[in-house]
Amino acid sequence: MRGARAAGVPHRPPGPTGSPVTVHEEPLAGGNTGVVVRVGDTVRRQAGPWTPAVHALLDHLETVGFDGAPRALGTDELGREVASYVEGVAGTLGPQPLAPEFQTIEACRAIGAWVRAFHDAQAGFAPDPALPWRVVPGRALRPGEVVVHHDVGTYNTVLRPDGSFAVIDFDFASPGAPVEDLAYVLWSWTPLWGESAAVRREMGAVTMADRLHKFAAVLDGYAADADLRAQVPDAVLQCMTDHSRTVEELAAQGDPAFVRMVADGHAEHPLRDAEWFASRRELFAAAIAPSGVRGSE
Ligand SMILES: Nc1ncnc2c1ncn2[C@@H]1O[C@H](COP(=O)(O)OP(=O)(O)OP(=O)(O)O)[C@@H](O)[C@H]1O
Ligand SMILES: [Mg+2]
């Protein structure tokens, strides 16, 4: 759902001498859950109890030189999260058409490679168990786990002028298995929903052959081994049902953005997508088997 956003309202924080300074805030369209504005080279977004954990992760990524994510820049005088603005074209999920650059096999390979680099860049990062994530409490990573972004949709990705992708909106990051990020990418980028949903989400027509190649390309981009490939079909279904449940739970807790999302079908659509995928599961599994359809063809 693309929420209606406030028109560009200048806001007036106190200047250094207490006099008001007008700062131009440009609303950024494309999000579902919060009001996001651009102020100069920064974006301002709703902060929450999860923000310190997310910023610790973003700080680590910056320290190790991973540049595929915004930089965390603290919070502003209104308590909003401040992050660096990533220049480029942001992906969408309707109502405007998804840019063709996000719908190619190369894009799928590149986003798979982004996930790989994001996971690899976490070597040596130990999240502070005292810091909560948005939907789960803080905890140490278990063996084999990483901090999973959980929301690497086309709509949270920016195509930069140099042709590389950066991913934004780490609100749903939390510890988990690497395959969880791949499952979400496969769902969004292949995409794993029926034709009518593809049209509704402004992705145009996608053939099954194209979907199978994209599915394989994501895993090739990640350099997924046989064990990981074997986990993928179950992980995709789990991801869809978990997503539906999370939307329901946040709505039940009274979060207005999620109440709106449930009303707009965002708890229900993932379950339909899961049915769509379940009935084609063997085709997709074959495409990522070592002798299956290869994304590089
Ligand atoms: N760091 C950033 N750099 C560039 N653009 C950004 C950045 N953060 C957000 N945007 C823009 O603002 C839009 C909404 O941002 P964001 O995804 O953070 O909002 P949201 O409401 O949390 O979204 P979601 O629907 O994923 O919950 C994005 O689609 C993108 O166009
Ligand atoms: Mg977003």
TrEMBL record:
Q: Which residues form the Aminoglycoside phosphotransferase domain?
A: 142-201
Q: Does the keyword Transferase apply?
A: yes
Supply the alphabetized keyword list: Transferase
Instruction: Return the annotated region ranges for Disordered.
Output: 1-29
Any GO MF annotation of the entry? transferase activity
Among SUPFAM superfamilies, the record links this protein to:
Protein kinase-like (PK-like)
Q: What is this protein called?
A: Aminoglycoside phosphotransferase family protein
Organism of derivation: Pedococcus bigeumensis
